[in-house]
Design goal:
The protein has 27 helices and 2 strands. With about 600 residues, it is mostly helical.
Length: about 600
């Protein structure tokens, strides 16, 4: 059997498969254009004061929301330039879908290249067909929904596309090694050009999201899986080949730590080192379970108090250690399996809970790169089934991909249903999820529904949660229970004295209850400390009711000058301006 075939036939087959994979991916993900804003989208888009300001470029070079991602910000602005007539967030979601389709095509080419060199007994049709199946398995996995359907996660879409493009270049640079295993000094001029291209793409990916901090470990895993790089005589050489990529990984890690620190998101010591180590092992096995059986999907898999050292966590840690030990023991006879597992773990290591903080224990979007080593390993197995005509196993592989696709479509539907449906899914998965309860309560409060059950559960689970007290105060105020609402806001202010939103609400409620002097002190203090539009508008109401129309007008003008055209408070501020008989200044847009 001719395992390679004429180059023209191979190029035609890969090109045709690329078109099919690209079209299937686009069609499968097109429905997510109907998804709306969700969670962090408010800080990223809706209430972002600089996204459409003349200071955009300078601000994009600073850390925001715990990330340093200038390339991501630029791509988001490019969406609006490319599709100016398209409503938001549809334009951003379209960008996500297009990037996802491109990444699927690049992954197909990665898999085709691996199968071409690594398994020469396979025909061209088997190599390309299995590569297409593997690319679709990755592109249509249900855990991709969080990244593609969430506009804020453009950073995932862009960074991963560049990482996979760099991986394709890196593999081209290693092509000569499939015939022999030369030293690094035996690289050809062509391979050096491919390595330079990989370096550029991986460097650019660090400007979108800091995934490349795991790059050296992932490349060591590929060396092991593709070149048996953990055999005794190869180990030191394998490490040496990966070492130069720390030039990209270390700066990316330092910048990521800086961005996290700037957002106040660095580890606060709430979990001890033992809890973090045990939790990391458990999380690794949880990610493996989500990969195989993506049933318990959720927009938030929270850390639940009191469970970090329970039986399930300890069992997960023991399972992770045992599986790793077994694969190392079998590494000489099954280097591909060892490489796949180590690559899976390497991409997940930065987000296993050892260092990063946050309310989530795991997140489905974190699997977006970790699945690629597993797909490469699985592709070689499935190709062998096709080559050996093991029809039952071939059908099983196709059924698995179809099952994942069906679950993906179902989970897409939940995302399209909106944030309340998503938080309901999170609560169904974990009823003790405080943040899910608070977020669903806030949404119900926003549309005039009764959030009392969610807020009561949140306060029972976390009596010192300032956000829950703030929302509860608003709920009580709407019911006319002003005294109870004021007590709840005072509790929130005591728990979070630096929360300007709480102080602004407190000032407004004090004014409503008739204590104008104290309301003035609270609002003046909040505005001095940086309180924004809400504080200004609350003080404008207070001044207008006190007869100070000139002061009220000044506050309204100051608020309007800060408000972008699409800000939720813009309509309120313009209505106040009309009531005061003043003209609104230009919107805060370029």
């Amino acid at each position: 059997m001719d395992s390679v075939g004429p180059s023209s036939q191979r190029r035609a087959s890969v090109a045709a498969a690329s078109v099919v994979v690209g079209l299937v991916t686009l069609l499968a993900w097109w429905p997510v254009l109907e998804c709306g804003w969700f969670w962090d989208d408010r800080g990223t888009f809706v209430a972002n004061p600089w996204l459409h300001s003349p200071d955009f470029f300078a601000e994009s070079l600073r850390p925001h929301l715990g990330h340093w991602q200038p390339l991501t910000w630029w791509s988001l602005r490019l969406d609006e330039l490319l599709w100016p007539q398209m409503a938001l967030p549809k334009a951003h979601l379209l960008g996500n879908v297009l990037l996802h389709g491109l990444t699927a095509i690049l992954l197909l080419r990665v898999l085709a290249l691996v199968l071409r060199h690594h398994e020469r007994r396979f025909s061209v049709s088997v190599q390309v067909g299995v590569a297409a199946l593997g690319a679709l398995a990755w592109a249509l996995h249900p855990c991709r929904v969080e990244s593609v359907a969430w506009a804020t996660e453009r950073r995932d879409m862009l960074a991963v596309c560049l990482v996979v493009g760099g991986l394709l270049c890196w593999l081209h640079a290693q092509s000569h090694r499939f015939e022999s295993d030369p030293s690094p000094d035996e690289q050809t001029p062509n391979s050096r050009l491919w390595l330079a291209a990989a370096a550029v793409l991986w460097g650019l990916s660090a400007l979108a999201k800091a995934w490349v901090i795991a790059l050296p470990g992932a490349l060591i895993a590929l060396e092991i899986g593709l070149f048996a790089g953990w055999q005794r005589h190869n180990r030191w050489l394998t490490i040496r080949r990966a070492a130069p990529w720390f030039v990209i990984a270390i700066p990316a890690a330092l910048v990521a730590a800086w961005a996290q620190h700037a957002a106040g998101a660095t580890s606060d010591g709430a979990l001890g080192i033992t809890e973090r180590i045990v939790g990391a092992g458990h999380h690794l096995m949880a990610y493996l379970a989500l990969t195989v059986l993506p049933l318990q999907l959720s927009p938030l898999h929270p850390i639940v108090a009191g469970t970090t050292l329970d039986t399930a966590h300890v069992a997960g840690w023991i399972g992770a250690v045992s599986l790793t030990g077994l694969l190392f023991w079998r590494g000489r006879s099954s280097p591909a399996a060892l490489g796949a597992w180590l690559g899976f773990a390497a991409w997940l290591l930065p987000v296993l809970g050892l260092l990063q903080s946050g309310v989530q224990a795991i997140a489905e979007r974190y699997l977006i790169l970790a699945h690629i080593p597993l797909i490469i390993f699985a592709a070689t197995i499935v190709a062998a089934w096709f080559a050996d005509r093991r029809k039952g196993l071939m059908v099983l592989a196709v059924l698995v991909v179809l099952g994942w696709t069906g679950r993906m479509v179902q989970w897409q539907g939940v995302w399209r249903a909106g944030p309340e449906a998503l938080w309901s899914a999170a609560i169904a998965g974990e009823p003790k999820s405080i943040h899910a309860r608070i977020n669903r309560g806030a949404l119900r409060l926003g549309r005039g529904a009764d959030p009392e059950n969610d807020l009561a559960v949140a306060l029972a689970l976390s009596p010192n949660n300032a956000t829950a007290w703030k929302l509860n105060a608003e709920h009580l105020r709407r019911q006319g229970r002003t005294k109870e609402a004021l007590a709840a806001l005072l509790r929130a202010a005591k728990l979070a004295p630096d929360d300007l939103a709480v102080r602004c609400n407190l000032g407004g409620l004090l004014a409503q209850s008739g204590d104008r002097s104290k309301a003035t002190l609270v609002l003046n203090s909040a505005i001095t400390d940086g309180g924004g539009v809400d504080c200004l508008l609350n003080r404008a109401v207070l001044r207008a009711n006190s007869g100070d129309r000139k002061g009220a007008a000044a506050d309204v003008r100051a608020a309007l000058a800060q408000l972008p055209a699409n800000h939720p408070q813009r309509q309120r501020a313009e209505g106040m301006a009309r009531a005061l008989g003043i003209s609104a200044p230009k919107r805060a847009t370029p």
